[in-house]
Amino acid sequence: MSESEVISRRKALSLMGLAAAFSLAAAPTVLTVSDAEAQTVGMERRHERREHRRERRHERRHERREHREERREERKEK
């Protein structure tokens, strides 16, 4: 072996240790990402329900406002 290819045991062990530490640090990140994807469907459903609720609430308020204005107009005419 030439001198450029020789790696000391200490350096080899430190590289293995770094690789192990990186894999341990990356594992929770990968699990977290997969959990987040699993929650996305539920979050989307909840978001859609909230949007529909907001739309219905807006429509109800708009209808009430229109009816109120109509009643006020009728009172003014009398």
Task: Describe the protein.
This protein is an all-alpha fold and 78 residues long. It is built from 1 helix and no strands. It has one helix at residues 9-77. The longest helix is centred in the middle third of the chain and has 69 residues, at 9-77. The protein is rod-shaped and about 105 Å long. The N and C termini lie far apart (108 Å).
Quaternary organisation: single chain
Please state the overall shape, judged from the principal axes of the Cα atoms: rod-shaped
**Helical amount:** over 70%
Please compute the radius of gyration using only Cα atoms: 33 Å
Q: Which structural class should the secondary elements be placed in?
A: mainly alpha
Which segments are poorly predicted (pLDDT under 50) over 5 or more consecutive residues?
Answer: none
User: What's the mean pLDDT score?
Assistant: 82
Percent range for β-strand residues:
under 5%
End-to-end distance, in Å?
A: 108 Å
Total of DSSP H or I helical runs spanning 4+ residues:
1
**Sheet with most strands:** none
Query: What is the H/E string?
Result: H
Give the strand tally: 0
